[in-house]
Amino acid sequence: MDREETQKRIREYFDSREEDMVRDIFRLMRIDSLKSEPLPGMPFGEKCAKVLEEAEKIARALGFPVTNYDNYAVAIDLNDKPSRLDLLAHLDVVPAAGQVWEATEPFAPVLKEGIIYGRGSADDKGPAMAALYAMAAVRDLGVPLGYNVRLILGADEESGSSDIAYYYKKEQPAAMTFSPDSDFPVINCEKGGYWSGFSGTFPAEEHPVLAEFHGGDRGNAVPAQGWMRLQGVDADQVTALCRRIDKDTGVWFQVSRDGKDCVVRAAGTGAHASVPETGNNGVTALLRVLRSLGVKGEGGTKAVMALAKMFPHGEFYGESAGVAMEDKKCGKLTLGLNVLHFDGVKVEGRIDCRTPLCATDENVAQVLRRKFEAAGLLLGEEHICPAHYVPEDSPFVQTLLRCYEQYTGKKGYCISTGGMTYTHHVENGVAFGCAFPGQDNRMHGADEWVSLADLKLSGSIFAQVMAEICAEESPVTVQIGLRVYRADRAKA
Fold it and tell me: Which of 11, 196, 375, 400 is most buried as measured by Cβ atoms within 10 A of its Cβ?
């Protein structure tokens, strides 16, 4: 069966199994698989164990053998031949509490006009089932294979990836690996990172201008909001200054009096820390107000003002911190101050730095540590996490791009990202699907969605990849060394 005939039959297969695939996606989506406190035999809590159990039932009903790795992950095998291709997807989700959903309730999935709405539809339950049905398509269509495809489903991707680290303590990776938990065409370069908390304790000042400062709660998110309490300042002067900075930055400020104090609140725009330029940092906007006021002081105030100088509002690439760099593969380093708290005595917070291939401990971690130490602050982390890169011209990547082009009719190309997927520490691992260029599936947000047509197309592409890579006489071969998978990071 030639490639064109295979394509035709694969597309027809997904059309014929559409209702079954939607049913199984909904079975997973109805489970609020948010990580919770561990229980005996349930390392990520009851709901995560439940969603893995449901995935096992779905896979077994489709006729596939399943191995459960102590409720950290389950592995589903296409056949009993030597492994050549692994697919890594996850069934845990991020919280939906506090979000205003309109299309449906987060865990009451619906299909409306060809769109599946609900938590996990795009991240990553829909893509996981597209991959599973791709395996079914290859088997049911009788595509001759000489190698195995294994789908590994984890339950801790959103909170640190300890699930997949546990799996790789038990098993070696296949020669080639992709995760359908990102974007098409192919993400072959993932930036590394330096994620660290910092802190410092100082003597209380007698008459400080800056009494308090609070902003941000997650290191991997650009903070939209923050507030600070000032003493001994003219509220009208502060209001006039904030209006000027508002016009310049787009951050909204509110200045109010609280007794003799002046409270300044800032509201910008949140964003993922991997793309800080898409947000408007409320914390650094407040620091700009402090610098414009010419606030001086000792101890904690001096440390905060050092941070204001190190992290100017609107600067994303680490110039003022002395770590600006870029390379042709990953692009520019990004650096953000995303959490900052000061109570008059203690300064603490978190920074997020996404690093290209040229980054090292010497030119990033150590430079930042010296900068913070000069301000009387100690960074908690010693080392950066290296960037991950698979060459564009590798036979594996070229096969993925060719299959993408065959099914979409669009030119395939490689992408670099500041985010990290399951494949970051996997030799010869890349991200491949399921979001198509230009899409915003509202991952992690209200009314998360995915197009059913896109899931069917993604599954068809995956099936073609399996047919070509795992064929009895496949020309796609890759030699890899063994890399130890480390899960020593917070979710990036």
Answer: 400
